[in-house]
Design brief:
This protein is an alpha/beta fold. Helix content is 48%, strand content 10%. The chain has a six-stranded parallel beta sheet with strand order 3-2-1-4-5-6, sandwiched between helices.
């Protein structure tokens, strides 16, 4: 086990003025702490995109129709989505997993696509629990299986991304529930909600969170399942299994961080191997990061999802690893 003091001492002994690289050195310390080594690795790496639909969209909580989820899944499969472009640009392997898309793309399917659907999306969380505990467990298992697959394939850094129209509504519920934040402070405009949509979303999040909170103490899995999404539960399982097997978890935005809150609640200690890539424009993301004790690398007001914030920050993670592993020590150059 390497402690922070040892890592800082190593950085300060390198051929540069001490602490001259500012927050890059902070990131390097975090990366080395997570991996317990002074020469951390950031390759190979994989992003798994989990896609699902949400019944609560019927309540008018999104500016976009539910069909967009399926359209975007097809765009990702074609390699033309932002996530696909960024993954290619930064040498990150990509997998796409359908956990519950109402209108899945037609075959043939590329090798990186997995159909693991649990149905045509969740139930409407405004009216009933979004899913049963059995469905939650099944989604968690899908994510855990993807983490094991990544580990077996030699992937060192794992990223989870998501695609699901309306999923900032369950993310807000989960953040309010698990980060103990006021619902009104964690609801954002998602993919461009106008004032009436925002008001509807805020009302639904407050009511659903209150319902879930009453069950949280006695049955946390049932409470979480009642306001989650299939892709969010799958990401939680992915994170928990990733941590258990010693992977480095590079955390994306608001929805992924809601999944991280679930993982930490049900598998305590998962957050110890997480590095927060960015803070999104969604107001609840900051509260979720604080609850996890994570300091984001970037604060660029990104809110796309699909793991894009983590993909954008990957070169900084590479830079932190290069600093630790490839720079000469002052003693090596006679200084």
């Amino acid at each position: 086990m390497i402690d922070e003091a040892t890592i800082w001492a190593h950085l300060d002994a390198l051929a540069k003025p001490p602490r001259s690289l500012g927050r890059l050195e902070v990131l390097a310390v975090r990366l080395a702490t997570v991996q317990h080594r002074l020469d951390p690795q950031t390759r190979p790496r994989r992003i798994v995109l989990f896609a699902a639909d949400h019944g609560v969209v019927a309540q008018g909580v999104s500016a976009w129709p539910q069909a967009v989820t399926g359209w975007m899944v097809e765009t990702i499969r074609a390699g033309r989505a932002t996530s696909a472009a960024l993954a290619t640009a930064h040498g990150c392997d990509l997998r796409l997993v359908d956990v519950g898309v109402a209108q899945p793309p037609p075959p043939p399917h590329p090798a990186f696509y997995r159909n693991a659907t649990l149905g045509a999306g969740t139930a409407d969380l405004a009216l009933a629990p979004a899913m049963t505990v059995a469905q939650f467990d099944a989604a968690w298992a899908i994510g855990a299986d993807e983490a094991r697959r990544a580990h077996d394939d030699g992937q060192v850094v794992l990223i989870a991304g998501e695609m699901g129209i309306g999923n900032t509504t369950p993310a807000a519920c989960l953040t309010a529930l698990l980060a103990q934040a006021p619902p009104a402070e964690v609801v954002g405009r998602g993919a461009g909600a106008d004032d009436p949509v925002f008001a509807t979303k805020t009302r639904i999040v407050a009511a659903a969170t209150a319902r879930a909170a009453r069950a949280l103490g006695d049955d946390p899995r049932a409470a979480i399942a009642s306001v989650a999404g299939f892709e969010i539960a799958a990401m939680a399982g992915y994170f928990a299994q990733g941590a258990a097997q010693g992977s480095t978890l590079f955390l994306d935005g608001f929805v992924a961080t809601a999944a991280a809150l679930i993982a930490e609640r049900l598998a305590p200690g998962t957050r110890r191997v997480m590095i927060a890539a960015h803070r999104s424009a969604e107001p609840g993301h900051g509260a979720a990061l604080v609850a996890l004790g994570l300091d984001p690398v970037l604060d660029w007001q990104m809110r796309l999802g699909e793991g894009t914030g983590a993909l954008v920050a990957l070169p900084l993670l590479d830079s932190a690893a290069a600093l630790l592993g490839n720079v000469a020590r002052l003693s090596d150059i006679g200084a």
